[in-house]
Amino acid sequence: MTAPTTMPTTLTNSEARPRTAAPARKVGALGALSATGVLLGLALVLAPLSAWHITQGTSGIGFRELFAALTGTASSPAEVGPSARDILIGSRLPRVGAGILVGVALGVAGALFQSLARNPLASPDTLAVTGGSYFAVTVVTAFGLAIPVWASGGVAFVGGLAAAALVLGLAGGAASSTTRLVLAGTATALALQAGTSTLLILFDEETTSLFSWGSGTLNQLDGTAAVRSIPVIAIIIAAAIVLSRRLDLLSLGDDAASVLGVPIRSTRAFGILLAVILTATSVTLAGPIGFVGLCAPVIARLLARLVPVLGRHAVLIPATALIGAIIVILADAVLRAIVGPTEAITLPSGVTTTVLGAIVLVLLARTMRSSGPAQATSAARSRLHGPRRAVFVIALAAVLLAVGATVGLLTGERFYFLGDILLWLKDQAAPAISFAFDSRAPRVAAALAAGAALGLSGTFVQASARNPLAEPGLLGITGGAGLGAVIVVTVVPGASVVLISSAGVIGALVAFAIVYGLSWRGGMNTDRLVLIGIGLWFGFTALTTLFLVRASPWDTPKLFTWLSGSTYGRVWADVAPVALVLLAAIPLAIVWTRELDLLSLDDDTPRLVGVPREPVRLGALITAAVLAAVSVSAVGVVGFIGLVAPHAARALVGSQHARVIPTAMLLGALALVVADALGRTIIAPAQIPAGLIVALIGAPYFVYLLARSRA
């Protein structure tokens, strides 16, 4: 069969593009009064939160002393404290000011993205804008490029704009379906994250301060940066309000808006430009603080059910600005109240907002309704290949895998020859050669077994979800594995690799259970499964970052390498669990080949031929989760293998799973073995984690798949 040319989806246009209120008629005095009341009410909520935030700090100086110092009503230095005014102006006001400005910028940016795309899941995060900005800043920092202070925001802007343009282009335009938009944004964000992580590892001295900053922090040296960003944010918001009438009309649809005189292309281009500038300004000020741009507009539109005037963008835009500020200040204040001001200095403020955003994303996905029988996957409609081709491809892949495994043994910090392997096998090699092969062989075996497990896991996931762009990570497995491992390292100092890997397996399985349970709502909607998986993936990753920055500095490099996917330090005991699970899963895969073929068609065909659809799907997904989880014990967290290997297998041998399964396993094993060899060789004696090599190669391939899958 040929490669997929369309992406399956169970969403109709009406569901993919959420209903937005029609442009409101001219409001009279009552409407203006309602708008004023809403904005005033939000401002009154923000004010006490900001006051509470100002009272939090490491100095122990409370609100009364700070207020007295600010108003000059202190009776004596002894009463107020000699540094109260300095603390207020030099530390606490800059932090709360930065939080308000970041919330305002991200809230309005999210409102613009969602209105322009007519999609409630569009935001600076799901469009990879924050990821692009972070990557651009990391590149400049890693290579020591001299950038004037006034141009520092331009670096983040260029990176964010390029990422947004790429995501929208891959998804098929700003008005693309929810699932396509989120998948495109997630893939692009993962690719940018892999590039950023690679730079953080290779240029660790130059980028030391960027890891914590990369999750968002409101720590400010002084108020200069915040003051400098005020006119930029104010001008952009004013321009967005000027654009509000066009945005109101765009909610009717492109055709209706065009008839009413709205220039569609220029409006979208200008609106996206404004949103990216706001996002870049926020990133420059406080780093990538996640999901405020998703939550604030969603909350505003929920309030619009009670106060209809919020349906007008002239009111919606300032309202989302205030809601965004409330979210950031509340999240930061709650974090400081829970862990204490001293500990909060080292914790990324973006963690709490990302967890909140993940919850909102899951709740939105839970409201998704099935639109009837699902469409067949593009793979199911592809051209068949003959059995000779399948035999040839499988044989060739097996030969290439053997060659790749051999090359993996020979390469590394020092290169060896085939004769050295023969001497090692006969136990006649020199001690240095024996030591090298004794350490390399388990690594190659771990990569081989884990790659095959991920290839088989991805095959199960794609067949069950009927989506050739799905992968095990979308079941929450990757995020859950990372969170479980980091919790163990934080709680158990000096935890062994076995304990870390076991915790990763347990975390992966628990995460899958949560994702599947939340996705079930009178039946399984595959798009809902993907979106909830992505939401929890973001949430687990944010919590992982929280535990990681709180871990011992001595454990951080080991954890970061493990989270990036690496075979470093593996022994034969690490390979055994993966091999055992593979031996159990392969017979199941052989038994289920017919059922998987039927599941990949639609929901109705399995039922018509007597196949128990949901039990088989659940069994396949559980097997996929176990395979992906045990692969974590061998190579850490590795993405994209479960996506690329099954898709490449279908493109080479067709969609029949009797052929896809062995091909995907061989290709997955080959990809990870080659990535491991490259990671150990490119910058030897230093090493790049195999997971980053896979991501850097797999992400462009994912981009290619998504571009080809446009309906």
For this entry, give a set of tags.
711 residues, mainly alpha, ABC transporter involved in vitamin B12 uptake, BtuC, 2 domains, 71% helix, globular, disordered N terminus, transmembrane
**The CATH architecture of the largest domain:** Orthogonal Bundle
* Helical percentage: over 70%
Tally of contiguous helical segments: 31
Straight-line distance between termini:
18 Å
Q: Uncertain segments of ≥5 residues (pLDDT<50)?
A: 1-26, 75-82, 370-382
Task: Please tell me what the overall shape is.
Answer: globular
Q: Give me the secondary-structure category.
A: mainly alpha
* CATH level 3 topology of the largest domain: ABC transporter involved in vitamin B12 uptake, BtuC
Can you put this structure into words, describing what you see?
The longest helix is centred in the middle third of the chain and has 35 residues, at about 430-465. This protein has two domains: about 15 and about 35-75 and about 85-365, ABC transporter involved in vitamin B12 uptake, BtuC (Orthogonal Bundle), CATH 1.10.3470.10; about 445-710, ABC transporter involved in vitamin B12 uptake, BtuC. The chain is globular. With about 700 residues, it is an all-alpha fold. Helix 2 (about 30-55) runs parallel beside helix 15 (about 315-340), helix 10 runs antiparallel to helix 13 and helix 20 (about 430-465) packs across helix 30 (about 655-680). It contains 31 helices and no strands.
Strand and helix layout:
Layout: H1 13-16, H2 29-54, H3 63-71, H4 77-80, H5 84-117, H6 129-142, H7 152-171, H8 178-202, H9 210-213, H10 224-242, H11 244-250, H12 254-259, H13 264-286, H14 292-303, H15 313-339, H16 341-344, H17 350-366, H18 387-410, H19 418-425, H20 431-465, H21 477-491, H22 497-519, H23 526-550, H24 556-563, H25 572-591, H26 593-599, H27 604-608, H28 613-635, H29 641-653, H30 657-681, H31 690-708
Helix pairs in contact: 2-15, 3-5, 5-10, 5-13, 5-14, 5-15, 6-7, 6-8, 6-13, 7-8, 7-13, 8-31, 10-13, 10-15, 14-15, 14-17, 17-23, 18-20, 18-30, 20-25, 20-28, 20-29, 20-30, 21-22, 21-23, 22-23, 22-28, 25-28, 29-30, 30-31
